[in-house]
Amino acid sequence: MTRKVLFPQLQGGHGTNRGNPEPKPASKEDPDQRPVCTSIGKQQRQQQQQHRWETLLFMRPKSKLATHIVPAAHGFAFEVKASSHFRIVDLEGQQVVDFMAWALPYTRSTDCEHFSASYTRYALGGLAAPQEGECLYSNRDRKMFTLVADTVRTHDLLFMACNPGFYSRQGQPDHRSCATNFAEAMAPWGMEHWSDVIDPFNVFQNTPYYTLKALNSSKPGDYVEMRAEMDTVCAVSSCPYTGGGFNGGNVTRVAVVTEVVEDED
Questions:
Q1: What is d(CA 168, CA 190) in angstroms, rounded to the nearest whole number?
Q2: 3-state DSSP call for residue 94?
Q3: InterPro entries, from UniProt (predicted)?
Q4: How far apart are CA 74 and CA 67, in angstroms?
């Protein structure tokens, strides 16, 4: 099927104009047909699916893994060195994870280099999120991350992070939000207020057509894996929003798995 190109004038970006992918409802996907599975027995396949997120695809010598479980509706920040890999994992399914990143050293100044959803959209030539082998770009038009593995292939580069103002308008001024989650997680690096957050990469969020159809595309154990192209501090938020069936109506925990490369002796 030929993909619809919404903005042909954007074809001058760094990548191919891919248009917008067709929504892929989770309910129609056969878990036995995921690319990670090979021609092995069903029981082995199920075990492989259950634990596949625990091992990075590309390991370097003398490296090990560190796993952090992010509680439901909370955030977590972590540093990643250039060429290292990390995964964002949906542990229980149907959970959107907002992702942001800043080049190190982090500063609150206006010239701070950070992930840019708009630069990434332009570089990729449309509204669709990156596919495997494509990159996330910074506000200086530099590659920040390469997407090396993706078991869902449905994400969002359009929506902002939910914030206190968003919930206050709905009569929920004390509701947790992605923006405040980021501010809390980034406080050790110097972030002082949720207004300092940037537009996120909304992992596992299916909104390519601004529709409420098939919002929740991820299943337990689904993940994205990225390789850092520069030294960065990254932050994730288990999105607290549940309106309209978002996040399956039930916010759940997620995991971040990072590759830790030990210093040479």
A1: 26
A2: coil
A3: DUF1989
A4: 16
Residue 225 lies in a domain: yes
Domain of residue 85, residue span:
70-252
Which helix (H) or strand (E) segment holds residue 254: the answer is strand 254-261
Number of domains in the chain: 1
- Residue linked to tokens 């530099």: 142
Is 38 contained in some domain? no
142 found inside a domain? yes
For the record, the structure tokens of 160 come out as 């902002």
Q: What is the DSSP string of 1-65?
A: -PPB-S-GGGTTSSS----BPPP--GGG--GGG-TT--SS-HHHHHHHHHHGGGS-SSPPTTEEE
Q: Which residue, chain included where needed, has tokens 């695809």?
A: 57
Q: What is the pTM of this model?
A: 0.78
Cα 245 from Cα 242, distance rounded (Å): 6
Q: What is the pLDDT along the chain (265 residues), one digit of tens a residue?
A: 443 333 333 344 554 445 444 444 444 444 444 333 333 454 554 455 545 666 666 656 667 889 999 999 999 999 999 999 999 999 999 999 999 999 999 998 788 999 999 999 999 998 888 999 999 999 999 999 999 999 999 999 999 999 889 889 888 888 899 999 999 999 999 999 999 999 999 999 987 554 555 667 799 999 999 999 999 999 999 999 988 778 888 999 999 999 887 665 4
